[in-house]
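Technical appendix A lists one of the benchmark inputs used to test multi-chain prediction within the project. The record comprises two sequence entries:
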Amino acid sequence: MSKEKLVQLDNISFQYALETGFALRNVSFDIYEGEWLALVGHNGSGKSTLAKLLNGLHFPQEGSIKVNGMLLTEESVWEIRKKIGMVFQNPDNQFVGTTVKDDVAFGLENNGIVREEMLERVKYSLEKVKMAQFLDQEPHHLSGGQKQRVAIAGVIALRPSIIILDEATSMLDPRGREEVLETVRELKENHHMTVISITHDLEEAVKADRIIVMNKGELYREGSPKEIFQLDEELVQLSLDIPFPVKLSKLLKEQGVSLSRHFLSEEELVAELWTSHYKK
Amino acid sequence: MDISLQKVEYRYQAKTPFERLAIKDVSINIPSGTFLAIIGHTGSGKSTVLQHLNALLKPTAGKVVIGDKEVTADKKQKNLKEVRQKVGIVFQFPEHQLFEETVEKDICFGPMNFGVTMEEAQRRAKVAIKQVGLSEEILSKSPFDLSGGQMRRVAIAGVLAMEPDVIVLDEPTAGLDPRGRKEIMDMFHALHIERKLSTVLVTHSMEDASKYADHIVIMQNGEVYKKGTPEEIFTSPEDLMQLGLDVPEVVRFQQKIEETFHIKFSQTCLTVEMLTKEIASLLKGGGQK
């Protein structure tokens, strides 16, 4: 992973209205090119507000945001939005086309992409999310999960350098979720995209390169999945949860099973149980 | 109140070029007091089944019996009001349906629509708001000044205030953080017992289904693929995985252990505590430590 700083947040504070408290307070961190960053935290911890600031939907009252070295302002916002694609939780709120392919084409037309390339990108993006056979379907005939995959196609068709998933998989079933995450992973690898994923899904967070934990509008902790899930019960205090393999490792230790550490992946835990107990 | 679906079929936009078969030959029994979970992929027909439970949809073939009401394709059904009151549906993201100036008015809207007096509706609102774990002071607030989790609870209180016998939940925990998820599900479980409700939970979460439900129905391509108790359903996790459905983490882990150690546990563990014990005793039995 390269350590090029793609986004720099410097001492951000933000409140929606004067009478309400700060949604974000003194938040500083960098986002590196090509990384998968998971933003976790309780409902109302400021994760989604952060996403909205990154995309210039709101501007912080204090502090600054730089994307590719460019300061995010009312003037630069249009330039910066081209670099950042956002996928929201509820696909119904972001559908504009009358058919699946029109919906994906909408963003491309807005950005003046030539027709030949547009057709190609629409096809490619829809294939990526496994929705190619729905090209001419109307959105209201699709299920929630299918709609979300089309919404993601709409974003990836624009080939942004950063994709923000704001709980984008939370309404999908397991297979749909895995397909979407796999798609994004592939885009990250092959197109060197940076992924910021706001999520409650711990299995997903475990696979991120880095995790930022938000709590009550402040940055609570930053680190690798291994570091973050060492926090253990502290995570429960923060309304989060402990990944299943860690939970099981703990309980097994309590039952007198000796383990070298708490495992983040099921495979590693099974392997350790197998080798330490059945091989001499 | 008992509900049963008997060989139900439903076609969207029947007899038009856009006709699409959503469910077929679906038979599900929901005796009073059942906690039933319906599981399946997006597009498997779960939501279509759900809308038959209080006659929002009328089957295009087969029969739905809700209490003493029969809903069939050819019969013109009058007086479905009672059914709608007895079977309360909490839709996905119910907080999007809040609209009144105050929480109290919002909760009272449903019952008053069914002819309950204002005094009675207000009394019910007080009961319901406590049942969803909020305090009475919140009744005078605007629902739009509340947090997302609180808004969802208010919306649920609105359904409870109708005093339904059956409560149908469509992905009630979507978008909540892990604590919120657990709190909401624990709340529904407590209500299920206290109010002696029938509860139907439509969910993707196998964890919730195995933890709370006493019966599980798996939908696949518009048909009932499998039904049974959680133990029965998760005894053969391979079937579910083949469909691309999740199995609870506990079940999945047990399966991995069984494969690696070439053994078979005597039971399907549905809690992490049970599984821990099984593994610990397996390792002690294998005792080479």
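Residues 243-280 of chain A form one domain. Residues 174-190 of chain A form the longest helix (17 residues). Comparable benchmark entries are summarised in Table A2.
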